[in-house]
Amino acid sequence: MTEGTWPIGPKPPLRRFHQARWDEPVIFELSQPGARGVLPPAVEPEIREAVGDPVAALPRSVRRERPPALPELAQLHVVRHYARLSQENLGVDLNVDVGQGTCTMKYSPKVNDQLASDPKVADLHPLQDPSTTQGVLEVMWRLEQMLKAISGLDRVTLQPGAGSAAIYTNVSMIRAYHASRSEGARDQVITTIFSHPSNAACAKTAGYEVITLYPDADGYPDLGALRAAVSERTAALLITNPEDTGIFNPRIDDFVRVVHEAGGLCAYDQANANGILGITRAKEAGFDLCHFNLHKTFSTPHACGGPAAGACAVTEELAPFLPVPTVERDDDGRFFLDHERPMSIGKVRPWYGVVPNIVRAYAWITSLGAEGLREVAETAVLNNNYLMHKVLEIAGVSAPYAEGRRRIEQVRYSWEELSRETGVRSEDLGLRAADFGTHYWTSHHPWVVPEPMTLEPTESYSKADLDEYAAILAHVAEEARTDPELVRTAPHASTVHRADHEPLDDPERWAVTWRAYRRKAGLGG
Amino acid sequence: MSTQAEPPAAYPYIPNAVPEVREAMLREIGASSVDELYADVPEHLRLTQPLDLPPALRSEAELVRHVEGLLSRNASTREALSFLGAGCYQHHVPAVCDEVNSRSEFLTAYAGEPYEDHGRFQALFEYASMMGELLEMDVVNVPTYDGFQASATALRMACRITDRTSVLVTGSIGRDELSKIRDYLAPDVSVELVPFDPATGEMDLDALRGMVSDATAAVIVKSPTYLGVVETRVEEIAAIAHGVGALVVGSTDPSTLGVLGPPAAWGADIACGDIQPLGMHQHFGGGHAGFIATHDDPRFVMEFPSRLFGITSTRVEGEYGFGDVAYERTSFAVREEGKEWVGTAAALWGITAGVYLALMGPQGMVELGEGMMVRTRYAMDRLAAIPGVRLPFAGSHHVKEFVVDLTGTGRTVAEVNAELLERGIFGGKDLSTEFPELGQSALCCVTEVHTKGDLDRLADGLGEVLR
């Protein structure tokens, strides 16, 4: 063995990353019959004596025959198993998480997590007497006031569970609005291909025919196509702006006007609001409704895919249709829940919303104020344009549409040129990036932009972070030329190796649970 | 005298707010100002005033003081003795559940690939696998938003599978859940309520027989019901529904499945419900997540809107890989051509419920169910002994909730609960608006957290209030 150098040499340009690889079994394989992880409290003997055995009194047809075949583990082994799995996961706290475009992967302040888990709110039942819940009701009311200011609209509900649920809530309100005016024959909803797929999918679920507009040659939503699409059948336009390309539609108010003139409503999907906080609002463009994703723009953690939180804002005209209950403040400054709203669409979720995330979002906005929110937006946009500048220095990548224009908060790039040259696909490049401790996401389907990559750097990352990220992409792109097989077989330094996809689409082999896997693999039930 | 604090040069959450860094970045991209980057936002759409927001509380200390100050006006179920349930439950949350779901590797991750986010995929696969054992079904979704959404989607799945557009809903369903179902099944699916027997609280099977037809896509039955009663004739309900080619959706509370047979055992084709009882705090109603489960029949699997994570081989022998099963059915893949929609929902609560089930194990779930049943019966017996108090479904089986009718006392639930509150007790949910046919009734919830002393305190307190 040779000794290392002293003083210690410099770091290499890219970090020598290797993710945790615990080779962890599935939890059932760790089972030790008889082991216990936690114990429920024992029933006092006096209670048993008083009531006998109500379980034995259950009819056989509804009594559980044998205990559920759950794994049996001592507490340490549960903790260790999940601690290991957690190490096999990368979150914002670990990686330069700019590769999950459209998702606004920003830093979630720890203090807000602490506030959200305060027993004064975590252990509150939603049906408590309002005299015991004034604090949480005030937080909700205050957050609603903030989102009114940020959107410019008149009323807010925090009930939807996440962004897509908020889109559905807006669609449901649109449906109720038209029905209230005997305009139920309006059966079409218009959206754009670069708006989130849930705009199309929620409208369809709610019974609408969906018309999807494609961009013009410059990548801007096509006003002519919209004019051709609207009619007396138009119920609404559901549109994102900036779209998932990061391109802001400068004629957005014209879009709204055209739809209004046809008698339709306009709902603004503000999933991409991070770059325009305090710059422009739903109100100025004339929207009737909008929604925010509190887990994107307002920093609540993404939690492996929820719990998230959605918020819908509407004009006074749409307010009667908001889900019940609404949070109200009486003349004495006391907060209460109003269930008596006869025009309401009713419930979109149990109770009032994802309260821990409502607390987090409130704390986040409070810590920043108006000036801070504008700083968030401007920095997110600066970071994005800086990263775009860096990325476009890499040979083989492009940013289709709006040639020479700036972007707002994200860019949908294309590796088409590199892919044509090397045969390496965008997905492969993303998986190779995992070997350097990060990742990126391609795009929603369909891939209108070929070989896509969607990057959204938000305000959370430093110049050095962005430089590192761009350097990883440059390195991986170079590898695609020099050693394409290395890229195509990536990841190599991740938790696991390339997985086989065929079994996942084969009913004979797909297995969503361990019991299904064991049965199909012939390993016994 | 006060001096106005200067705006800070940098924000703790915004590293590139440092002016020198911004200047350098602007220089590098050839822009003179950030404003230039907004060239596509027309002047007439720009805000000219700052947003009308309260002044910032920039330091952590000020923020904590402010938010804790607001929250201090709450009184939680740790401070009072609560008997509130009705869909949101006070169970003991094991410390390990909070530990795992606050680990930042899980908390701050999102939608990475099954490589750098292998842990998330495995943890959710294990969640589904443990729920599969509890439910005795092979297919369980990555959680949807909540139990209401699970019911609504299960019914839409049933409509697609049967190609029918009429559903029958158990008449004792909570009115909030019914509202969600009606909103979600509009405009194309008709929703009718099957009455319940006022003597037992169970579904009226004669009525059900008269309502099913070859247009019925599904019957959704809950056991325990919203009013706390165990449906004992579920096999007959399933037979009636299946007899007309309808599916059975069995909605259940997973915390009761140590003692109750899962819906699959009595013939349900789709099981659904809410996992909040499995390791989530009440969160003022913000701790919910929904499960949907079916047998491993492609006709059913292909109708899930949710993501389904499956296990698969990798290029290395003995290594477990994960990925999306039948992704092409989702709206992520094919937009409005997918099944309903999929989006961010409640994955971390799923991971947490998995932790809970792993901690509890088979014996823990049995003890949980038994413990609740025994305590609940004790509470029922004590309350029934109070003059004027009637338990309308006392002869039925209950696990953790039951209805108490105060009509005979001449007092309203609202009055009684107000007086219980003075004694530090949150009485049961007032049902007088939701189920006027039950008079002045309350829905009381008893779980494993309640001691004999707690239950006696409720009975004694109610006795005093009514004296």
Give an account of the 3D structure.
The complex is a heterodimer of chains A (525) and B (467). Chain A has helices spanning 45-51, 75-87, 110-116, 119-122, 134-151, 163-180, 197-205, 223-229, 252-261, 282-285, 355-391, 416-422, 426-433, 463-482, 484-488, 514-520, and strands at 155-157, 188-192, 209-213, 234-240, 265-269, 289-293, 310-314, 326-329, 335-338, 411-414, 452-455. With 525 residues, chain A is of the alpha/beta class. Chain A has a domain at 115-366: Aspartate Aminotransferase, domain 2 (3-Layer(aba) Sandwich), CATH 3.40.640.10. In chain A, the strands form 3 sheets. Chain A has a 7-stranded mixed beta sheet with strand order 1-7-6-5-4-2-3, with helices on both faces. In chain A, strands 8-9 form a two-stranded antiparallel ribbon. Chain A has a two-stranded antiparallel sheet with strand order 10-11. In chain A, α3 runs antiparallel to α11 (355-391) and α5 packs parallel to α11 (355-391). Chain B has 467 residues and is of the alpha/beta class. Chain B folds into 3 domains: 15-71, no CATH class; 81-90 and 366-466, Aspartate Aminotransferase, domain 1 (Alpha-Beta Complex), CATH 3.90.1150.10; 95-356, Type I PLP-dependent aspartate aminotransferase-like (Major domain) (Aspartate Aminotransferase, domain 2, 3-Layer(aba) Sandwich). Chain B contains 14 helices and 14 strands. In chain B, the strands form 4 sheets. In chain B, strands 2-8-7-6-5-3-4 form a 7-stranded mixed beta sheet, sandwiched between helices. The longest helix of chain B is centred in the last third of the chain and has 38 residues, at 347-384. At the A-B interface, α1, α2, α3, α4 and α5 of A face α1, α2, α3, α4 and α5 of B.
Strand-helix topology:
The complex is a heterodimer of chains A (525) and B (467).
Chain A: H1 45-51, H2 75-87, H3 110-116, H4 119-122, H5 134-151, E1 155-157, H6 163-180, E2 188-192, H7 197-205, E3 209-213, H8 223-229, E4 234-240, H9 252-261, E5 265-269, H10 282-285, E6 289-293, E7 310-314, E8 326-329, E9 335-338, H11 355-391, E10 411-414, H12 416-422, H13 426-433, E11 452-455, H14 463-482, H15 484-488, H16 514-520
Parallel strand pairs in A: 2-3, 2-4, 4-5, 5-6
Antiparallel strand pairs in A: 1-7, 6-7, 8-9, 10-11
Chain B: H1 19-29, H2 60-71, E1 81-82, H3 95-101, H4 104-107, H5 118-135, E2 139-140, H6 147-162, E3 166-170, H7 175-185, E4 190-194, H8 205-211, E5 216-222, H9 234-243, E6 247-252, E7 270-274, E8 290-294, H10 298-301, E9 309-313, E10 320-324, H11 331-334, H12 347-384, E11 401-405, H13 413-422, E12 425-426, E13 429-430, E14 441-445, H14 452-466
Parallel strand pairs in B: 1-12, 3-4, 3-5, 5-6, 6-7
Antiparallel strand pairs in B: 2-8, 7-8, 9-10, 11-14, 13-14
Helix pairs in contact in B: 3-12, 5-12, 6-7, 12-14
